[in-house]
From TrEMBL:
GO molecular function, one term: 4 iron, 4 sulfur cluster binding
Keyword terms, alphabetized: 4Fe-4S, ATP-binding, Iron, Iron-sulfur, Metal-binding, Mitochondrion, Nucleotide-binding, Transit peptide
Family: Belongs to the Mrp/NBP35 ATP-binding proteins family.
Organism for this UniProt entry: Bugula neritina (Brown bryozoan)
Designated name of the protein: Iron-sulfur cluster transfer protein NUBPL
GO cellular component, one term: mitochondrial matrix
Superkingdom assignment: Eukaryota
Function in brief: Iron-sulfur cluster transfer protein involved in the assembly of the mitochondrial membrane respiratory chain NADH dehydrogenase (Complex I). May deliver one or more Fe-S clusters to complex I subunits.
UniProt cofactor(s): [4Fe-4S] cluster
Protein's UniProt keywords contain Nucleus: no
Location within or outside the cell: Mitochondrion
A GO biological-process term: mitochondrial respiratory chain complex I assembly
Length: 258
């Protein structure tokens, strides 16, 4: 049962809010959110973009965006986002010690995310990309019900179990009247760099089938690529590190579709 929709308030100074969601963890949601955020700045880097790590259970943004400082407060006691690669970033991990395990109750998670949305000086921004926690629980509902969201992107691998959960994600957003912009199929194929043989490690075309079944567009199809993983671990998104690669072009084309 979906609770009644409270009033959805815009975030001051933020033009569009895009959620990056997934049914399951480990499918590449954060990697997609980070590269999408950098790509949304545009090749001329004129667009103003923010990235909120709402995945409080497993925050990846500090590592993927190479940021570790503590945010400062302005005169209005609003937190100032940290900035790297031209993107304004905020994560719960900036506010608590990273190596300490926090035991979150559902309500604490919801209130933490509301603070990260409302007590941060986000504006002026053309886009705020929100890296959501995986799954379809209270937190996901609370974000899509409390702020004005322009659309959600669902990341999945082509694997059956991931697709099953991605379908639930799409259904949840439609129940709360949040438009689903489309699906990103990640880790679709592995192309051997030595012999160019292709291997469908997680199955093939699963997201295409899901997209036609649900009538939601497939926005991008991103292969398994060692550089994507290496760049994530080094704290430089592939869009920044390899601006002219074919993979980077996939993220630019994804950015055009949101
Ligand atoms: P999630 O946010 O869904 O939990 P992550 O973005 O953290 O997933 O990705 C999980 C792991 O897979 C990370 O180690 C990341 O670097 C790696 N990864 C994500 N997408 C790809 C890809 N297309 N090719 C290779 N590695 C990837």
């Amino acid at each position: 049962v979906v609770p009644p929709t409270p009033k959805r308030l815009p975030i001051p100074g933020v033009d569009k809010v895009i959620l990056v969601a997934s049914g399951k963890g480990g499918v590449g949601k954060s990697t997609t959110a980070v590269n999408l955020a950098v790509a949304l700045r545009g090749k001329d880097q004129t667009c103003k973009v923010g990235l909120l790590d709402a995945d409080v259970y497993g925050p990846s943004l500090p590592m993927m965006m190479n940021l570790n400082d503590s945010p400062e407060l302005n005169e209005q006691e609003m937190m100032l986002p940290l900035m790297n690669y031209g993107v304004k970033c905020m994560s719960m991990a900036f506010l608590v010690k990273q190596d300490s395990a926090i035991i979150w109750r559902g309500l604490m998670v919801m209130s933490a995310i509301q603070q990260l949305l409302r007590k941060v000086q986000w504006g002026p921004l053309d886009y705020l990309v929100v890296d959501m926690p995986p799954g379809t629980g209270d937190t996901q509902l609370s974000v899509s019900q409390n702020i004005h969201v322009d659309g959600a992107i669902i990341v999945t691998t082509p694997q059956d179990i991931a697709l099953l959960d991605a379908r639930k994600g799409a259904e949840m957003f439609s129940k709360v009247n949040t438009p689903v912009l489309g699906i990103v199929q990640n880790m679709s194929v592995f192309i051997c760099p030595k012999c160019s043989h292709t291997e469908d490690i997680f199955g093939n075309n699963g997201a295409e089938r899901l997209s036609s079944e649900l009538g939601i567009p497939l926005l991008a199809d991103i292969p398994i690529n060692k550089s994507i993983r290496q760049c994530a671990d080094l704290g430089t998104p592939i869009v920044v590190e390899h601006p002219n690669s074919t993979t980077t072009e996939l993220y630019y084309s994804l950015a055009k579709s949101v």
